[in-house]
Backbone:
């Protein structure tokens, strides 16, 4: 029996034995963003609350935008990693290491700890001042649109995945993390193009010409296939080399939930293939809709294409379209139930910032999960 079918059968048995009973095996992930990791007390608080609220996995953001919330070359320097300290570490002692502390505290509380890394987006509303930041060292790597306009580093600049040196550089940074920390997983975010009209940095266009003899044209399927392959080749390389360092590491990716539309056509994120070919162990489709039926449909599609991989559907705690307060816990519960009904292996919640606000407003652990659950074991993957 295929692993996916076995998991679905187990899920059915566990949930049907007693109406309303939660699964005893279920991934429960929590994304903890960089701005929640600014002091030892903040790190410990996030980990403790994740454990108290019955999560069993945390995704800790340690590469925000081309920067480090960890110590590059902590023990070994085999992989090149010149990235500067994160702006969120400003004013903190040089030996403060959010990732090391998160791993120590997370394991003490029985949580798996995944290093959450932003891959190709390297600035976010600010122009990095550190000379070692990648956009300052290699401005030619910043992506351009189809009209030749380079992305502004003072806004949201991306490195162009079509440039081989970009893929080499980014992979080296991520592998430095894996080689220096006992993380349970490496979690790839923004592992895609920014959009259908991006990826036209002159070096990338030249590379395409050399490899295909064709001019870059967003209307041509050859161009879009080449862009998808650039991202897939990057994921493949990272997972292969990461597993050489740590054979038990879990490779996961945050992906657009519309697999065949926004993901595949819009941002060249062929994550169905990644799951089916074992390039990732775990997909986290970001199904941030307020509609439980839509969340269920997107989850069911992901499960269908999971192969021997796992799916922890990502759900939001807030309506990000109108900046409103976090959702009522009952609404969040309905979204969790939709994910379960669709056969996913787990759910991941975005984010700890909103969870903390809900806790301050009086939410109890029982409002989300009424009983603890074990995370699916990597040995079963």
Residues:
């Amino acid at each position: 029996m295929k692993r996916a079918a076995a998991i679905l059968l187990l899920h059915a048995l566990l949930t049907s034995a007693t109406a309303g009973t939660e699964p005893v095996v279920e991934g429960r992930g929590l994304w903890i963003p960089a701005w929640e990791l600014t002091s030892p007390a903040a790190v410990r608080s996030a980990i403790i609350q994740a454990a108290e609220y019955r999560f069993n996995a945390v995704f800790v953001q340690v590469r925000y935008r081309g920067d480090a919330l960890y110590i590059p070359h902590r023990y070994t320097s085999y992989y090149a990693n010149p990235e500067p300290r994160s702006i969120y570490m400003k004013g903190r002692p040089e030996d403060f290491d959010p990732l090391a502390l998160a791993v120590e505290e997370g394991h003490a509380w029985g949580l798996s700890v995944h290093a959450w890394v932003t891959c190709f987006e390297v600035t976010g509303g600010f122009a990095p001042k550190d000379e070692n930041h990648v956009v300052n060292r290699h401005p030619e790597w910043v992506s351009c649109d189809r009209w030749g306009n380079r992305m502004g580093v003072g806004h949201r600049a991306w490195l162009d995945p079509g440039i081989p040196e970009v893929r080499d550089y980014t992979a080296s940074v991520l592998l430095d993390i894996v080689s220096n920390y006992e993380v349970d997983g490496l979690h790839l975010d923004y592992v895609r193009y920014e959009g259908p009209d991006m990826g036209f940095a002159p070096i990338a266009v030249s590379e395409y010409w050399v490899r295909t003899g064709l001019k870059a044209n967003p209307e041509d399927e050859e161009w879009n296939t080449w862009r998808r392959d650039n991202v897939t080749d990057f994921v493949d390389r990272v997972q292969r080399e990461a597993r050489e360092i740590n054979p038990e590491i879990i490779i996961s990716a945050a992906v657009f939930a519309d697999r065949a539309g926004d993901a595949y056509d819009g941002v060249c994120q062929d994550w169905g293939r990644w799951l089916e070919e074992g390039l990732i162990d775990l997909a986290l489709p970001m199904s941030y809709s307020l509609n439980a039926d839509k969340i269920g449909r997107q989850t069911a599609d992901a499960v269908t294409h999971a192969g021997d991989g796992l799916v922890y559907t990502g759900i939001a705690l807030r309506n990000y379209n109108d900046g409103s307060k976090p959702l009522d816990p009952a609404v969040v519960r309905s979204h969790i139930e939709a994910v379960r009904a669709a056969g996913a292996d787990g759910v991941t919640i975005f984010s700890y910032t909103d969870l903390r606000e809900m806790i301050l407003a009086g939410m109890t652990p029982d409002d989300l999960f009424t009983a603890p659950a074990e995370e699916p074991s990597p040995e079963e993957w």
Q: What stands out?
A: The beta strands are 27-32, 57-63, 112-118, 185-189, 250-256, 282-286, 310-316, 346-350. The chain has a mean pLDDT of 93. The longest strand covers residues 57-63. The domain at 3-119+163-193+223-380 is CATH 3.20.20.80 (TIM Barrel).
